[in-house]
Design goal:
31% of the residues lie in helices and 36% in strands. The chain is of the alpha+beta class. A hairpin with a 2-residue loop joins strand 2 and strand 3. Helix 1 (20-32) packs across helix 3 (64-74). It is globular.
């Protein structure tokens, strides 16, 4: 068709519990049909907010509000916060990551531990310093690492684009350092 590639995204909320991501993905898949992929999770108190990418041409062409409505009707334990279509962005500008933690070398902040456990970029709100903490898991020379980024202020949330830029920066640092 020659147009710019787009993806359909949903931002959902559910109660944070064991396997909450897997359950939420299954619920959304059963409501809309095609597979979904979690791109980013946010932990805020007992709530889990997940940014999902819906995965095929049918959902790419579907009206995001219809997909959101289908999920809302099918799932009482998942709330759709927003639904949108966005252009796929093939090139990401790498974001420098000054805070890289090695797994097993130092105690990990909660967001970093959760990112490693779930193998998913994780943002968490820390009310003690009024900031969001983003942890992006990656590998360097066969070892697990976590890149951390921080933002002050509740309204300055992280997105999947921030994750991609940070991940690209981590891979760029690994290449630059011969790793």
């Amino acid at each position: 068709m020659g147009g710019a590639m787009t993806t359909t995204k949903l931002r959902i909320a559910t109660i944070d519990s064991d396997h909450a991501i897997d359950i939420a993905c299954l619920v959304v898949e059963s409501a809309v049909g095609p597979p979904v992929q979690a791109e980013l999770q946010e932990i805020e108190g007992g709530n889990l907010i997940v940014e999902l990418e819906l995965g095929n041409e049918t959902t790419t062409n579907a009206d995001p509000s219809r997909l959101a409505s289908a999920v809302d009707k099918a799932a009482s334990d998942v709330e759709v916060l927003s639904a949108w279509r966005e252009s796929a962005c093939p090139e990401r500008t790498p974001q420098h990551c000054p805070d890289v933690l090695g797994i097993g070398y130092e105690p990990l902040p909660e967001a970093a531990r959760r990112a490693i456990d779930d193998d998913l970029p994780t943002a968490s709100w820390d009310c003690s310093d009024a900031s969001w903490h983003l942890a992006v898991p990656a590998f360097c020379s066969g070892r697990a690492i976590v890149g951390m980024s921080h933002r002050r202020g509740y309204s300055h949330r992280f997105t999947a684009h921030d994750v991609a830029a940070l991940r690209c920066g981590l891979h760029g640092q690994n290449s630059a350092n011969g790793r």
